[in-house]
Amino acid sequence: MNSFLGFGSQYVDRHHARNGQRAYLHITRTRKTKKEDENNSGSGHPPKKKPTRLAIGIEGGFDVEQELYEEDVKVVILPDKQEVTSEDLATMPDVVRERVSLSMTGIMAADSVSHTLQVQQWDGEVRQESKHAADLKQLDNGVKIPPSGWRCEVCDLQENIWMNLTDGKVLCGRRYFDGSGGNNHALLHFQETGYPLAVKLGTITPDGA
């Protein structure tokens, strides 16, 4: 409760021995039992609407169901691991009770904010304009991109093909963790030239890409 560092139970004793800290806030969370499935017609609730857009936490998107937990909070004093509950605090001197209570409240409030920030609204259908688009440099180098049949100009890969919007280079995309995707040639081209924008071929429409 002095350094605001968090530890699992197996490391608390080590931290106490190294730093001499004695007061730790111990938070135990138990997940509440879920109610009946709201999709069940016998539950008395109307069935959930099916998502109509690729989004989370906004109208028409997927619902965000936050898990609910029962919390047990107490102060533990090391090295004896003496537990101090809210009932115990009521019997302590006013100065001690006030300082410890304020500290506990502050820690729990910060923790609640961190949980709220874990889930944010997200709309996968929103297209934002890149900061590089307004003054994008496009070279007059005579390159013409065919409407189909694209291949990486370095390795001849025909899938996951990207076109650089500055010089028209057609190259393969990133290599994924499992070895699929591409051979990183579009990324390497950006690293060599600094040309910032590329578009995945096959995704271009009159409204964007």
From TrEMBL:
Keywords: Hydrolase, Metal-binding, Ubl conjugation pathway, Zinc, Zinc-finger. Residues 128-209 form the UBP-type domain. Pfam families: zf-UBP, zf-UBP_var. GO terms for molecular function: hydrolase activity. Residues 18-53 are annotated as: Disordered. It comes from the Eukaryota. This is Ubiquitin carboxyl-terminal hydrolase 5. It comes from Ameca splendens.
